[in-house]
Amino acid sequence: MNRPTFGLMVKKPRYRPTFIRQWRIHRGLTLEQLAEWVSLTASHLSMLERAQRAYAQETLEALAEALSTDVASLLMRNPTEPDAIWSIWDQAKPGERRLIVDLAKTITRTGTG
């Protein structure tokens, strides 16, 4: 038996948001290109990007590989934020990275900043 909705819109479920779209754009790929690389339809990938479809671990792993990043970054890291610590880290040379680590240790140890 179908229940009447009395004019109310039934919302589609929302899933945990990701940064897949930001990574795709950051890498200069179209929705269609990335979808083809990971054997998804563009529609499916679009729904993943908009948190309208659940993702599987193997899908995230394939996307991470295609986008030259890791799964954790797809879930937690926006590559388009230039002042974020990870963006600074990505742009740093090896010697600069050592300095960043030393500075961070000093700040957290002494509480200065």
Major β-sheet annotation:
none
SSE pattern, N- to C-terminal: HHHHHHH
Tell me the strand percentage band.
under 5%
Count of runs of 4 or more consecutive helical residues:
7
Helix content: 40-55%
Total strand count, please? 0
Poorly predicted runs are none
Cα-to-Cα separation, first versus last residue: 63 Å
State mean pLDDT (0 to 100 scale).
89
- SS content category: mainly alpha
Q: Quaternary status of these chains?
A: single chain
Q: Give the C-alpha Rg.
A: 20 Å
How would you describe this structure to a colleague?
The chain is about 55% helix and about 0% strand. The mean pLDDT is about 90. The protein has helices at about 20-25, 30-35, 40-50, 55-65, 70-75, 85-90, 95-110. The protein has about 110 residues and is mostly helical.
Condensed summary:
The chain is an all-alpha fold and 113 residues long. 55% of the residues lie in helices and 0% in strands.
Describe this protein with a few key phrases.
mainly alpha
Topology:
Layout (H helix, E strand, L loop, with lengths): L19 H7 L4 H7 L4 H8 L7 H10 L4 H6 L8 H7 L2 H17 L3
Helix pairs in contact: 2-3
